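Chapter summary example.
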Amino acid sequence: MAAAHTPHESAHAAAQGVRQALGGSFAAISKWERELGKLRVLVNVGELADDEEEFPADESYPVHEFPEIVGFLHEQWAGGGEPSAWVETAEGDPPPDAGPGSLPSGAPGAVRGGGPYNRQRVAALRRRGRACCVVAPILLHGRAWGELYVARRTGEPLFDRADAEFASVLAAVTAAGIAQTERLAEARRLAFTDALTGLANRRAVDMRLDEALEQHRADEAVVSLVVCDLNGLKRVNDSRGHAVGDRLLERFGSLLSLCGAMLPGALAARLGGDEFCLLAVGPSADEVVKVAEELCDRAGELDLGEGVAVGVASTGHPIGPVRSARRLFRLADAAQYKAKAAGSAEPVVAGRHGGEDDPVVRLADAPDRRVGPERRRFRR
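The structure predicted for these 380 residues follows.
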């Protein structure tokens, strides 16, 4: 779990490890979504039934079908102490040596010495050819987070009291791994997100652009970059205050995200200050230019600011070889500089007029080029 990069990878590692440790044929980890009143299955591993997927898109169950979730697995544990795992069988009877210590005393639906059982679980065991299961609650930050479920196929030994006790320990280990993964996921999110707009930040763009150019070199995928400079931000900050200026940045960020959604997989980002960009991999250069034109039109309708200066650079245009992220950024930035200098209400596109002889391309490739923001952007 410590080596996992995403919550799904972490859950998969935990389920696989617990399945092997308990000698199960199948294991699953589910999360309790309180706001929806559901147990949502994150991952299934091992021998899957016809109606099961490894990473199900929407396998969930109402918690009222599993009353231990809203009863025993609640914020305050019945009777005090920590929750423990329990065993259920396809016959609805406890295994011979289960003993009361392996089951949560007072837990609705648990198998206890001939007592009531959870019909949904028992029916699922029978339907999927499984003999028994052990269910262990996963506790995170003092609250029920979800549950660990491990089953054995028909013909294998039933889980016993020792297995249930071991499952409780494994659930605690799983909870520690999940907590670490969630902390790392939040740290990654913050590291690659602009705090004001919620868009990607420059670090995320750099990483994605490097990957995109690798793809371009491998299979000639079209990589396009749209660089935007929001006009009038300084005037708004000076005349109406930085809070209003921040609102303008947020509104333009939302507009950029909206337009970026027209290009499948596009990354919308704030580079810093009043500079933004869209990075698209796959769509044609013409599609990207069309979206850039839409962005200019919509930005001109904002009641704050003075529109936007937009530059476009795409490997789908005759701009010469693009061997580095630096060159594509220089081309897009030079185009944006031309748009701003001319007060253009439309995007300026590198290479559109004359290919490599295009004035924008020549400006980008000039060794003594001096167009403000780009010099700051590439000082590494």
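To summarize the output: The chain has eleven helices and eleven strands.
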